[in-house]
Amino acid sequence: MKRLNQFARIVAIAMMLGMRLSSLAHDFEIDGIYYNITSSTDKIVSLAYLSNRHPYGYSCNITIPETITYNGNTYTVSSIGDWVFSWCDSLTKVTIPNSITSIGDNAFRGCSGLTEVTIPNSVTSIGDGAFRGCTSLTDITIPNSVTSIGVKAFYETRWYNNQPDGILYLDNYCLGYKETKPIGELVLYNNTRLIEDCAFWGCTGLTSITIPNSVTSIGDNAFACCSGLTSIAVESGNSIYDSRNNCNAIIEKATKTLIVGCQNSIIPNSVTLIGSYAFADCDSLSSITFPSSVTSIGISAFEDCYGLTEVTIPNSVTTIGGCAFYNCTNLTSITIPNSVTSIGISAFEDCYGLTEVTIPNSVTTIGGCAFYNCI
Fold first, then answer.
1. Is residue 207 one of the residues assigned to a domain?
2. Starting from the edge strand earliest in sequence, which strands make up the sheet with 257-260, in order?
3. Residue 5 lies in a domain
4. What pTM did the predictor assign?
């Protein structure tokens, strides 16, 4: 886990240093706006950045075109890239066309003069910090089409600053909390549609969460590092999600079943995917029962589960992800069925307790270091 965390930090630093440089790549310019072609076949482009001669310094309003024509080809403008309008102080209004499906990370960050923005029904994702620091932005409406909201997308806007401390909602989207971390039991509103990325990250005082049936999307790491969390209730529905925290969980909504990685766990029959990091760092987990519905075990799904001693993988599983059982030092027995075709990089690395592994003929791909320091 330390190795992966170090790698993640390196990637994050590289992204911070390179975000501006990478955004300067472009395919062509029209009226002071640079564009990247994201699909030459479907004629789709993304806004890349503004040129120094763009009139935003003299004009208070910008209308993003729905289509543009370049070299005789008509392109649909489908996304607003990262940092495109960031710190355009004199920008007061932006009109976003119905062709736009995503708003990138920090796309309007620091636009202190921005007072009005309408997000069309075509938009499905809003990136990290997309409107962060828009200190004049008071009214925000998010359409039901949005299925993903990044970290602190509306942080430090006037709307945010006007909200009282506590659980933070924008329409029926839960953005986590402001200032005061919730403790004890958390019951989300009945009409909640989405929980923002990292919404309750580090809320160690939370002991239980009730998620209503109206929720359609739970963001990445929404409950990460909630080390006090022991209970999650989910209303009936059809979707399944996994989240990573110090006591990781997979939740099956149809039966309101919570499977906590810090206990011996039985995964319900409807689960088909064990997500990345689903049970990572659950060092007291000693056994897992997989149903025959599971087809894939994700990256680092059981990494650093020191207490895990035995795993039987059912015949339904076809892929075992990279680092899936990395550093499970007390794992002494593993059964790999004939259904498995791929074993990822370092899947069983540092499983010192393994003495024998039978790899079936069905396996066509074995990643590097898959069984390093074991057997």
1. yes
2. 240-243, 249-252, 257-260
3. no
4. 0.64
What are the φ and ψ backbone dihedral angles of 117, each rounded to 5 degrees?
Answer: -150, 135
Of 317, 304, 316, whose CA–CA distance to 350 is shortest? 304
Tell me the pLDDT of the chain (375 aa) as tens digits: 444 444 444 344 344 444 444 445 678 888 778 899 988 888 888 887 675 545 444 457 888 899 999 999 999 999 999 988 888 888 888 889 999 999 999 999 999 999 988 899 999 999 999 999 999 999 888 998 998 898 899 999 999 999 999 999 998 999 999 998 999 888 888 888 888 888 887 787 887 778 777 877 777 767 766 676 555 555 544 333 333 333 334 443 333 333 333 344 556 565 677 767 767 776 667 777 787 888 888 888 888 888 888 888 889 999 999 999 999 999 988 889 999 999 999 999 999 998 888 889 999 999 999 999 986
242 with 353, same domain: the answer is no
Maximal CA-CA distance, the chain: 72
- The count of domains in the chain is 3
Pairing relation of β-strands 257-260 and 249-252? Answer: antiparallel
DSSP H or E run through 21: helix 2-23
Do residues 335 and 284 share a domain? yes
C-alpha–C-alpha distance, residues 116 and 114, integer Å: 6
Please give the residue range of the domain that contains residue 283.
Answer: 264-375
Distance CA 189, CA 121 (A): 23
Domain-embedded: residue 9 = no
Domain boundary residue, one of 108, 127, 162: 162
Q: Are 346 and 323 in contact (CB under 8 A)?
A: yes
Identify whether residues 25 and 124 lie together within a single domain. yes
The CA angle 213-194-83, to the nearest 5 degrees, is 170
Find out whether 94 and 73 touch, Cβ atoms under 8 Å: no
Structure tokens that stand for 288 in this block: 């897992």
Measured CA to CA in angstroms, residue 284 lies from 64, 139, 327, 356 at distances of 53, 47, 14, 23
Q: Which of 245, 260, 275 is the last residue of a domain?
A: 260
Whether residues 237 and 344 share a domain: the answer is: no
Residue 119 located in a structural domain = yes
At residue 233, the 3 state secondary structure works out as strand
